[in-house]
Sequence to fold (295 residues):
Amino acid sequence: MSTLAHTMMTAARPAESGLAGPGELDRYPYAESPGADRVGPPSWDAPDAELGRVGRRAAGSRGRGLHGQLVQQLGQMIVSGDLGADRPLVPEEIGQRFEVSRTVVRESLRVLEAKGLVSARPNVGTRVRPVSDWNLLDPDIIEWRAFGPQRDDQRRELSELRWTIEPLAARLAAGHGREDVQQRLTDMVEIMGHALAQGDGITFSRADAEFHSLLIQLAGNRMLEHLSGIVSAALQVSGGPVSGCDRPTEASLAHHAKIADALASGDSNAAESAMRQLLTGHPEVERVVPAPREH
Fold:
């Protein structure tokens, strides 16, 4: 086993704990357990005096400050439709509801404005913007949609987008013989194999996410690399796209190994084909993105 693979496997705590140990492994993102630290988006007009405190407790377990927690709460409310388009957002009211300072509210609204969720104009104030103005490629918005009423649309759209991005990235990556990146891809497959054998879904998903990120980097196309965050977000959100990456299986491991082998041999056709097989690893995906017909 390579040094990197050994580090990842030994640094992780038992999978059932849901926790990661210190060291190299901490660099790898992984999917959160659905609902483990989430509460449903509260109604804006709810009379519950505990509204703000409940929201902060839920977000606090994610390791965010007040500013990040308020962004999380307001973002979820907007994406879920609890705060509809053109809804005015009054900073004073938000501060009272969530028991935070005006500075925290102002910083949070700036973040949401950068994501296209709200707009602030003189003499008009801050208002919620329509879906057509949102930055739907923003990882936070992807996550909020994945856990909200639009989860089915988000699953379908992510699957379709990955079907477009990743086979092309695999084809391009086969033409780049960077041994260091190729070795890391091989390491990730090795790590996934050991994690599968041990029933360690956390380590498997971390190595999976790293594998796809490295592959897109290896493609040598900076515009594709800019979109790598979409793939990472798709792999990290629970209930994300239903594909061969959706859960640790022998089939998923085999497809990743085929991709790595094709890249090592410079076979662009095989790399692209193996990626398509991976992304259609479950029948649900085939209904969303049909495989090419045989002629």
About this structure: Residues 31 and 236 are 4 Å apart (CA to CA). Strands lie at 88-89, 118-121, 125-128. The longest helix spans residues 151-173. The radius of gyration is 21 Å.
